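Hi, here's the filled form for the chain we discussed.

Project: internal
Contact: R.S.
Residues: 154
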Amino acid sequence: MQWLLQHTQLPVWLKGITHPEDAQLARELGATGLIVSNHGGRTLDTLPASATLLPAIRSAVDPDYPILVDGGIRRGTDIFKALALGANAVLIGRPQILGLAAAGAVGVTSVLRLLRDEFEACMTLCGCASVVDIGPRHLFPPAKSFLIDNDSHL
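And the returned structure, exactly as it came back:
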């Protein structure tokens, strides 16, 4: 990563961060931001879901450090939960591909519109006028980090 940062002016984001210590190291080395992702569980099939990993990674870095989450976003409520768990934004892969396969560009547009409508409805039902209002208090039970609260998975 150090070599890459020395040879580019572009922002460097690291994808596949699943452990708080890796998040801290990436921040210290100068990564622009992180993408929390278990790569769909295809590489290490016993990794927890990205949403499970997210709170511990958010706690490990500055509150303003950019974190995106990848994986498991299928509904607008998933977007809301990811933001409540500490993500700044989400990446959407599979729903767009399914929309594209079903109806081309119109299918992708429909998927994005549906996700937005569901997300806005969820915000309204949770009393959030803005995305900055979304936080862990909107989750039930309150968000806990699997990695911090339970080391028995190791």
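Let me know if anything looks off before we file it.
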